[in-house]
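sanity check this fold:
=====
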Amino acid sequence: MPGSILSPNSAGPHDLLKEGARPVTCAEDILTELNLVRQEAQAETRRALPDNEDERAILRMLGDGPTHVNDLGQASGLPIASLGSLLMMLELKGLVRQLGAGQYVRV
């Protein structure tokens, strides 16, 4: 139970449960509920989007640990706008993951 049935503060969560709300503990719960499977979408994206040499170079620059986007920019010599686009495409393909604060890691 999200709260005491006697507490007025629990009325909202209880109403949501009555309407069929389900608890969410991770992103996978939402994907499952919406009948979306991330791996299938990533595989489809990989097939639809061809690899290029710049993407391969960025993947080679990413090591086991997080790498900041500025470091990737300096190492690759690419303009930050191009690098951002490449990283976004690699993320859509499920090949890299953004950790926040400009940090990227190879998946």
